[in-house]
Amino acid sequence: MSFSLIAAVAKNNCIGKDNKIPWNVPEDFQYFRKTTLGKTCLMGQKTFESILGYLGKPLPGRQTVVITLDTNFKAPEGVRVFYSLDEAWNALKDEDVFVCGGASIYKQTLNKVDTLYITWIDQEPDGDVFFPTIDLNIWKEIWREDHEGFSFVKYTR
Ligand SMILES: NC(=O)c1ccc[n+]([C@@H]2O[C@H](COP(=O)([O-])OP(=O)(O)OC[C@H]3O[C@@H](n4cnc5c(N)ncnc54)[C@H](OP(=O)(O)O)[C@@H]3O)[C@@H](O)[C@H]2O)c1
Fold it and tell me: How far is CA 21 from CA 83, 121, 149, in A?
């Protein structure tokens, strides 16, 4: 039973542009898959639409939970929908939850999660959504794996 956050973040804190990821790092998609498999993935409605755009379906092998204010939003079968973050947080407290974005959800949950899984992308792309600043007085790096062009880093409080 845990709340973690997973994100790929560029050097300028950019995480997206035009509701897409503005880089192509297949190793990060594999890392995201391996880390979140079997877990609950909590995301905002725009990120959910973005995933549908890439995959044509929700993330396989994971429980998708979408947050929206749109009461007309129709989720595919198996996808749970909540109309407030607090409501979702409460309902998911007995599950292993990964906050999967996007920017608005990261901003609202950074102070609520216990662990951050950040892939630092060694690029400075043009973007329209950004990750909030990670306060290193609060977050301690506990694990790191450096690769050509990106690093996987885990932080805990
Ligand atoms: N690099 C990465 O790791 C990563 C990961 C995920 C996403 N992204 C990128 O992030 C971007 C999307 O981020 P975003 O900030 O635009 O959108 P988002 O956070 O995915 O979704 C925003 C939507 O979530 C709903 N929402 C947010 N807070 C809510 C609350 N407290 N209560 C109820 N509903 C709430 C609202 O939906 P309604 O408008 O329907 O009410 C809001 O419009 C895309 O570019 C995507 O590619 C990047």
Answer: 25, 11, 16
**Structure-token pair, residue 142:** 């506990």
Length of the chain: 157
Rounded distance from Cα 154 to ligand 1 centre (Å): 22
Residue range 2-156 in CATH 3.40.50.300: no
**Angle at the Cα of 120 from the Cα atoms of 46 and 88, rounded to 5 degrees:** 35
Q: Give yes or no for residue 90 CB within 6 A of ligand 1.
A: no
pLDDT digits (tens, 9 = 90+) for 36-62: 999 999 999 999 999 999 999 999 999
Distance 21 CA to ligand 1 centre (A): 13
Cβ–Cβ under 8 Å, residues 154 and 116: yes
SS3 91: helix
Residue 121 CB less than 6 A away from ligand 1: no
Residue type, 141: E
- Condensed to tens digits (0 to 9), the pLDDT of residues 127-148 reads 999 999 999 999 999 999 999 9
Q: How far is the CA of 45 from the centre of ligand 1 (A)?
A: 6
Ligand 1 centroid to Cα of residue 41, in Å, is: 13
